[in-house]
Recover the amino acids of this structure.
């Protein structure tokens, strides 16, 4: 059983395609920690900094893992933030017993928040990439202890328009989803490749990184259970956006997102009544790895945290 990304050559290769200032090196590199959670072992990329006034928890989406987020974890750690990037259950190197649901993801994030707050009283910000954006919202709604939400996407999968826009195609969205629900009632442990039901080929605009990610079984090339898929589609909202008043929200949406266009995130964003800001990352794909995009993200995150 693999226990470190050092044992996975592909995760030595992928980060080398990131801009130089975003690459893990001897000066800035994560500690790999396993956290015992509900008889499971959750892998964390941890960038400690006791001098940081806040902690940022990075949440990946359905085509990623915690190490994927080193593209922004390293710059944020470089400027002095403490950063934690977990592998969500079912992804990366986290070791899970049984079949997980989206509710497990939300609970895990909440327990991680509590774990960090038990150490000290530093504020916690959640940064969600792709589906991790709405996971950040759900987790903050449940926890009520988060100082701010930063998201690249906010996709309300209850809406048919959003499902159409994020599914592999409308056939999968309109016909495949009901079939998946029926199949899940028979056996929700059945696993399907994420690239067969979502626009995984649009996860990143860099063809070299895309090719590697689609081969990787710990991220974009993984298969997930029907239980997880259906629970993402049917996620329950503890607080509707009109009533959300727990913390400010920054939506930093990629301007050249070929998977989920800005209009899909704005449906939910526009309903939020809390203090919020929308920033369009110029020239950025769904996975905003472009050098100019990372600079914009870093600037907006620093400004958001300082003003929160």
């Amino acid at each position: 059983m693999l226990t470190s990304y050092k044992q996975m050559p592909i995760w030595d290769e992928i980060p080398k395609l990131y801009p130089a200032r975003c690459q893990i090196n001897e000066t800035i590199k994560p500690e790999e920690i396993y956290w015992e959670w509900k008889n499971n072992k959750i892998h964390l990329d941890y960038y400690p900094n006791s001098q940081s006034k806040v902690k940022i928890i990075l949440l990946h989406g359905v085509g990623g893992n915690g190490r994927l987020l080193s593209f922004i974890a390293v710059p944020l750690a470089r400027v002095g933030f403490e950063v934690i990037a977990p592998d969500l259950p079912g992804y990366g190197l986290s070791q899970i017993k049984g079949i997980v649901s989206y509710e497990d993801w939300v609970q895990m994030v909440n327990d991680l928040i509590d774990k960090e707050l038990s150490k000290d009283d530093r504020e916690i910000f959640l940064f969600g990439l792709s589906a991790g954006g709405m996971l950040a919202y759900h987790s903050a709604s449940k926890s009520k202890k988060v100082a701010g939400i930063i998201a690249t996407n906010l996709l309300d999968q209850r809406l048919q328009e959003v499902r159409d826009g994020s599914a592999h195609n409308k056939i999968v969205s309109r016909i495949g989803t009901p079939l998946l629900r029926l199949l899940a009632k028979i056996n929700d442990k059945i696993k399907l490749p994420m690239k067969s039901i979502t626009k995984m080929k649009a996860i990143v605009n860099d063809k070299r990184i895309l090719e590697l990610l689609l081969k990787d079984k710990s991220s974009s090339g993984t298969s997930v259970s029907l239980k997880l898929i259906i629970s993402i589609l049917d996620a329950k909202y503890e607080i509707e956006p009109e009533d959300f008043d727990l913390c400010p929200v920054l939506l930093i949406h990629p301007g050249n997102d070929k998977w989920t266009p800005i209009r899909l995130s704005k449906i939910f964003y526009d309903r939020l009544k809390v203090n919020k800001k929308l920033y369009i990352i110029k020239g950025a794909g769904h996975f905003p790895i472009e050098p100019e995009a990372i600079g914009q993200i870093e600037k907006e995150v620093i400004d958001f945290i300082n003003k929160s």
About this structure: The beta strands are 31-37, 40-47, 54-59, 82-86, 123-128, 148-151, 191-193, 223-225, 249-254, 276-281.
